[in-house]
Automatic annotation (TrEMBL), chain A:
The keyword Transferase belongs to this UniProt entry's keyword annotation: yes
Cellular component terms per the entry's GO annotation: glutamyl-tRNA(Gln) amidotransferase complex; mitochondrion
Pfam family for this entry, one: GatC
Name used for this protein in its record: GATC amidotransferase
Keywords, alphabetical: Transferase
InterPro entries on file: Asp/Glu-ADT_sf_sub_c, GatC
GO molecular function annotations of the record: transferase activity
GO biological process, any: mitochondrial translation
Highest taxon of source: Eukaryota
Automatic annotation (TrEMBL), chain B:
Species of the source: Mohoua ochrocephala
BP-aspect Gene Ontology terms: glutaminyl-tRNAGln biosynthesis via transamidation; mitochondrial translation
Record InterPro entries: Amidase, Amidase_dom, AS_sf, GatA
Protein name as catalogued: GATA amidotransferase
Amidase domain ranges (all copies): 28-147, 169-489
Gene3D superfamilies: Amidase signature (AS) domain (3.90.1300.10)
Gene Ontology molecular function: ATP binding; glutaminyl-tRNA synthase (glutamine-hydrolyzing) activity; transferase activity
């Protein structure tokens, strides 16, 4: 059962990485096929496991005290585009171009 | 002749007694790194800072106040741990040029003990892979490729065949760290272990590789792959040294809420003489498809070793073993999809020049920064996390994970103390053979024996056992109960003493170690 182009397109938009070529799409197909083996296992009455430490420890919340910080300078050093103490991003709220207009391998599939 | 020493037994004593100084040690290691550059084990060599750390250590020794066993000891760290002021790349274009503003907790702990940080080691990109062949800085070469033991056994197929093309892989993804320890350029190295990434290269490079219990050692500063399975890994020349490293690294970290709050007491390993009270479990499902007959025989021999020494050796069953790699595949890609979302070019790392919109800039940055393997896992993970797939794949995998973890609980409850299994399916493959299959296939094959321990969060260790017919290292794995590292390492140490794994005979090392060739059979040099 092949993954539809709609889903592939959706994945590219969600993940913000591209399939690049037919190999990339094939890779996903194989990954799904591989994962399908899970359905052979009977998991009736089995609870999903989030963490191996579930018995040992309750996720704790620490006191809301400021213990460190004041490292604006260090944090900004690794950013390529900044203005004063801001990270600069291109305009937001502009969705990725639709499949037909996007530069993606999936176009014309 | 100090470069080949074990930490606890020799080198620390030598430093204390002044027979060698930290700066001499550091300089020798740096020189050896240079002359073994062809191994490509290191991405960054922090020469200046290392020498400075060595000088400071020397001052402490002169005052008679060393910080501990690790003071002045040269170590290496896998390049997915943050190291302040030093580039941390994860062998990816995404982080080329990224200078960490802080030290990972484990790095800080080592530095606080006076260890000398020589550099950052090579890996598969973002620790995804089992060969250390898929990073942007190229593959790591197994030092054993250049050993006398391997060369004696390899018959060139033709006159024109270059010895160069015969080199074997280190395994992965902590291949650089394993190669660094194996080639004596450092005394210990940090790796990471999510599906076997410390134990696999340890087996292929003939060194000890310890995966601690999940929650014992802080992951703060370790660039995450799978938050519910990642652990920092320890690579050393002998089991005693692994215990020393564990002692300095384990314990609760307020910066990592997944570390347990229990007090951790560092321990020295006793010299076990009586194994009659020990019960060793041999999980029959670990006789996996593709397991080489050589390793099968070695595994059997090891079981007999325990039996003949009076231990109880029983066959056990971990019935869901064959599903653990599938389960891992789903959980890993799902968590990876989430963890890799942080790489968008805004705050750090590579940033694309695209300016039209945030979305298009993110997409282009990630397109340019990640390799095929990383992208593949992100896309698969996102697929499994889609609303229509969430229950079917992700939650299903979480349920199967519980079944796998329960398998281990049942076996340990039945009176078995330690499990003995192979670590890898075969001895290290030649590079040109390894790259014939793609990364995902290889990982699925190679991780089979190691990753169930990550699923269950259990401690596991690779102990170098013997050389294969081709003269290459083969190791065996011990898996223990949660937080019972002392018991695990005690048994591992006993086994190490029995097998007397041979020391690698590398020409380069002889030259740097005062040219004195010491043929010693034991890796622990005691």
């Amino acid at each position: 059962q092949k993954v539809s182009v709609e889903v592939l397109d959706h994945l590219e938009c969600l993940a913000l990485v591209d399939f690049r070529d037919s190999e990339g799409v094939e890779r996903l197909q194989k990954a799904i096929q591989f994962a399908d083996q899970l359905h052979e296992v009977n998991t009736d009455g089995v609870e999903p496991m989030d963490s191996v430490l579930e018995d040992r420890w309750c996720l704790y919340l620490r006191e809301d005290d400021v213990t460190e910080g004041n490292c604006t300078k260090e944090l900004l050093e690794n950013a390529r585009e900044k203005v004063e103490e801001y990270f600069v991003a291109p305009p937001g709220n502009i969705p990725l171009p639709k499949l037909e207009e996007r530069d993606t391998f999936l176009q014309g599939s | 002749a100090v470069l080949k020493d074990g930490l606890r037994s020799q080198v620390s004593a030598a430093l204390k007694e002044g027979r060698v100084t930290p700066t001499e040690l550091c300089q020798r290691c740096l020189a050896l790194i240079k002359s073994t550059k062809f191994l490509n084990a290191y991405i960054t060599v922090a020469e200046e800072t290392a020498l400075k750390q060595a000088e400071e250590s020397e001052e402490r020794y002169k005052r008679g106040q060393p910080l501990g066993l690790l003071d002045g000891i040269p170590i290496a760290v896998k390049d997915n741990f943050n190291t302040a002021g030093i580039e941390t790349t994860c062998a990816s274009n995404m982080l080329k040029g990224y200078i960490s503003p802080y030290n990972a907790t484990v790095v800080q702990k080592l530095l606080d003990q006076g260890a000398v940080l020589l550099g950052k080691t090579n890996l598969d990109e973002f620790a995804m892979g089992s060969g250390s062949t898929d990073g942007v800085f190229g593959p790591v070469r197994n030092p054993w490729s250049y050993s006398k033991q391997y060369r004696e056994k390899s018959v060139p197929k033709s006159h024109s065949e270059d010895e160069e093309s015969n080199w074997v892989i280190t395994g992965g993804s902590s291949g650089g760290s394993a190669a660094a320890v194996s080639s004596f350029t450092c005394f210990a190295a940090l790796g990471s272990d999510t599906g076997g990434s410390t134990r696999n290269p340890a087996a292929h490079c003939g060194v000890v590789g310890l995966k601690p219990t999940y929650g014992l050692i802080s992951r703060h500063g370790l660039i995450p792959l799978v938050n519910s399975m990642d652990v920092p890994g320890i690579l050393t020349r002998c089991v005693d040294d692994a215990a020393v490293l564990l002692g300095s690294l384990a314990g609760h970290d307020p910066k990592d809420s997944t570390t347990v709050q229990d007090d951790f007491k560092p321990f020295e390993l006793p010299d076990l003489t009586d194994v009659s009270k020990l019960s060793i479990g041999i999980p029959k499902e670990y006789h996996a498809p593709g397991l080489s007959s050589e390793i099968l025989a070695l595994w059997s021999k090891a079981a007999d070793l325990f039996k003949n020494a009076g231990a109880k050796v029983v066959e056990v069953s971990l019935p869901h073993t064959r599903y653990s790699i599938v389960c891992y595949h789903v959980l890993c890609t799902a968590e990876v999809a989430s963890n890799m979302a942080r790489f968008d070019g805004l705050e750090y790392g590579h940033r694309s020049d695209k300016k039209e919109s945030t979305e298009s800039m993110y997409a282009a940055t990630r397109r340019e920064g990640f390799n095929d393997v990383v992208r593949g896992r992100i896309l698969s993970g996102n697929y499994f996390l889609l609303k229509q797939n969430y229950e079917k794949y992700f939650v299903k995998a979480q349920k199967v994970r519980r079944l796998i973890a329960n398998d281990f609980v049942k076996v340990f409850r039945s009176g078995v103390d330690i499990l003995l299994t192979p670590t890898t399916l075969s001895d290290p493959a030649p590079y040109r053979e390894f790259i014939q299959e793609d990364n995902r296939t290889r990982s699925a094959q190679d991780d089979v024996l190691t990753q169930a321990a990550n699923m269950a969060g259990l401690p596991a260790i690779n102990v170098p056992t013997a050389l294969s017919e081709r003269g290459l290292p083969v190791g065996l794995q011990f898996i223990g109960r949660s937080f019972q590292e002392k018991e695990l390492l005690t048994v591992a140490k006993w086994f190490e003493k029995q097998v007397q794994f041979p020391m690698i005979q590398l020409e380069e090392v002889e030259r740097h170690d005062n040219g004195v060739f010491q043929h010693q059979k034991s890796a622990s040099f005691s």
